[in-house]
Design brief:
The structure holds 2 protein chains of 2 kinds. By secondary structure, chain A is mainly α. Chain A contains 22 helices and 2 strands. Chain A has helices at about 1-5, 10-25, 30-55, 80-100, 110-130, 130-150, 160-185, 190-200, 210-225, 230-240, 240-250, 255-265, 270-295, 300-320, 325-355, 360-365, 370-385, 390-405, 410-435, 455-465, 470-485, 485-495; strands at about 60-65, 75. Chain A has a two-stranded antiparallel ribbon. Chain B is about 65% helix and about 0% strand. Chain B is built from 3 helices and no strands. In chain B, helix 1 (about 1-20) packs antiparallel against helix 2. The longest helix of chain B has about 30 residues, at about 70-100. Chain B is elongated, with a radius of gyration of 18 Å. Chain B starts with a helix and ends in a 13-residue tail after the last helix. In chain B, about 25% of the residues are buried. The chains are: A mainly alpha, B mainly alpha. At the A-B interface, helix 6, helix 7 and helix 10 of A face helix 2 and helix 3 of B.
Chain lengths: ~500, ~110
């Protein structure tokens, strides 16, 4: 009974922590320390939940308020959602560590840490909820807190970027509401398990296709998939470093989670059609993101475009749809979160040491000569982005390509492999410009900047997961097997 | 009654989409408000309406309407109200920073 309700804690701890942090708005140090403690406790609880779920192979389901499944809201911790929760809370913890060592004036804003925790709450909630409308509410929480965190950025154009994001996200939320309305009109339930059951029995009700389309569009906007990507580089480059590292690594994974759930649980009957779309969009995303990243003049924008191409890889994995390919997509998701947040923090660190606060290559070119430690970290991160051993990026790409060859998609593998060479090109070019070029004569490196502890932690994870990747790969394989059989999820939630 | 609802939803969607595509920053925000109303009406019609039947659960057991969409709309209205207030606040900041109300002139990130 107690373990059932433990699944609520990863959502409740950051939420209550945010409320208490609000009371500490006059004491900055206390508030920051409290927020870190909150997220660490929450992280530990979610790791405990993950080991529990993985060992038993059964999801932990909590029916909120004691109302049984189709009527009440259920929170479902199955291997996929709990793994995503652990990933996001780890990255959020490093984000708070980075914010505590940051010289930006935005982290002194009394609402900064509470909003950060609310962002974590929203993300955890969308991963854990078993109810579509509840997912909409949590997604809206992410949107509002993310927007405010960007709007208060030190960057003068932060508000513009935040407005763009907010406008697009509001429209995406409208899409989601329309999708929810369509599914409700057709099947009369919003519980994901019951919806999956009813759609499996009768998959040709009139509004079903409209519902699928709108939900897909929503998740594609949330993940910045190719035709809906245009807001993402602006938004991720203008946000404060600690925030952009979260947005570009774990918050974009919301759409990935949604698409995984759509193809493996909700619309299994229509999954081949959805997967066909995802492979095409993924290949376009990989190529487009890589080429755009090559053409940018700003390290943060380059990394934001690189997210676009890495999300493309994940979509291709989901699109192939075999249990191994889904496992590869999950491994890729987790690894990319660590790599990308570390890289964005390093870009922010460079900007904080540059003469004017910007990650533009003109400003940071040659600045690295005085910063060897950041250079080593950036180099390892670039190797990981490109997928070269001994980093975790290698494992995710190897697994993805192997699953593609197993699924008989050799042409796509070749195409994507060629495009991923571009990753090496743009990340190494950035490394060269920052660490090898001679700095302009009049440029000075500031004596103090942000602290490097958070990127060290994340790059440490990158190397550890690269050298000892079995744990994550086995976990992802089990998750892929679990997702292959939606009946388990439905039975666990509906208690049949 | 159904036909009137259908036309109302369609008309609101049309006006809302037209307004969101305009360059004037305030008009596009009004478009968002109209779209939100259109979607709320759509959600209402997804379960609560059955022709001329009023949108509540009747006591006689002759249940024609479903209460859940009303709960959904209530939540959606609250969220969209907060969203609208926030949009207007941001428009206020943007129009004072960039001294314009034309979307195309708010282009500080365009490099």
């Amino acid at each position: 009974m107690l373990t059932e309700h433990m699944i609520l804690t990863p959502v409740l701890i950051p939420l209550i922590g945010a409320m208490i942090a609000l009371l500490m708005r006059r004491t900055y140090r206390l508030q920051a320390g409290w927020s870190l403690a909150t997220i660490l406790v929450s992280l530990m609880v979610s790791i405990w939940l993950l080991t529990k779920v993985w060992r038993s192979g059964q999801p932990i389901v909590s029916q909120v308020g004691g109302w049984t499944a189709p009527f009440g809201i259920s929170l479902v911790g199955d291997p996929l959602s709990v793994l995503f929760v652990v990933m996001s809370q780890f990255v959020f913890a490093t984000g708070i560590v980075y914010a505590m060592g940051s010289k930006d004036s935005v982290v002194r804003y009394p609402m900064f840490f509470p909003l950060f925790l609310i962002l974590a709450t929203g993300l955890t909630g969308t991963f854990l909820t078993g109810d579509l409308f509840n997912m909409y509410v949590f997604a809206e929480l992410i949107v509002i807190s993310g927007t405010v965190l960007t709007a208060v950025s030190d960057d003068w154009h932060g508000t513009e970027a935040a407005y763009k994001y907010y406008y697009i996200s509001l429209i995406a939320s409208f899409f989601m509401l329309i999708g929810i309305g369509c599914l409700y009109a057709a099947y009369g339930t919003l519980n994901m398990a019951q919806l999956a059951e009813r759609i499996a029995i009768e998959n040709n009700r009139p509004l079903l296709l409209a519902g699928i389309t709108f939900l897909m569009a929503t998740f594609m906007v949330k993940s910045a998939v190719f035709p809906f990507h245009f807001w993402q580089p602006d938004f991720h480059a203008a946000a404060p470093t600690a925030v952009s590292a979260m947005l570009s690594s774990v918050v974009v994974k919301l759409g990935i989670y949604g698409l995984l759930r759509m193809t493996t649980l909700l619309f299994v009957g229509h999954a081949p059609m959805i997967r066909g779309f995802l492979v095409v969009l993924g290949v376009i995303g990989v190529a487009f993101g890589s080429f755009s990243a090559v053409g940018t003049h700003n390290a943060k924008r380059m990394l934001a475009y690189s997210t676009l191409s890495q999300i493309g890889f994940i979509l291709i994995g989901i699109g192939w749809g075999t249990p191994l390919a889904v496992a590869a997509a999950i491994v890729f998701t987790v690894n990319h979160s660590f790599i990308k947040s570390a890289m964005l923090m390093l870009a922010g660190y460079l900007a904080s040491r540059a003469s004017i606060k910007s990650a533009s290559f003109e400003v940071v070119s040659g600045i690295g000569k005085a910063l060897p430690l950041a250079g080593i970290l950036f180099f390892i991160g670039s190797l990981a982005l490109a997928g070269i051993p001994p980093t975790n990026g290698f494992i995710s790409k190897l697994l993805l390509f192997r699953s593609g060859i197993d699924a008989g998609q050799v042409e796509t593998v070749l195409l994507v492999g060629l495009a991923s060479v571009l990753t090496l090109f743009y990340s190494m070019r950035a490394f060269q410009r920052i660490w090898w070029h001679n700095p302009p004569a009049d440029s000075k490196v500031k004596p103090g900047g942000d602290r490097l502890l958070a990127p060290i932690l994340l790059i440490g994870m990158v190397v550890v997961l690269g050298l000892w990747g079995d744990l994550l790969v086995n976990l992802a394989r089990d998750t892929g097997q679990w997702l292959d059989n939606p009946a388990g999820y439905i039975q666990a939630v509906l208690r049949r | 009654m159904e036909i009137i609802t259908a036309f109302a939803v369609g008309l609101l969607f049309a006006i809302g989409i037209f307004q969101t595509l305009r360059r004037n920053i305030l008009r596009s925000a009004i478009g968002l408000v109209l779209l939100a109303s259109a979607i709320n009406l759509f959600l209402l019609s997804s379960g609560a309406y059955n022709g001329i039947e009023p949108a509540y659960v009747s006591e006689t057991g002759n249940i024609q309407s479903d209460a859940l969409p009303q709960a959904l709309i209530l939540t959606a209205i609250v969220i969209s109200m907060g969203g609208t207030a926030f949009v207007l606040a941001m428009i206020n900041i943007i129009s004072t920073r960039y001294k314009t109300r034309d979307m195309d002139e708010v282009n500080g990130l365009k490099n």
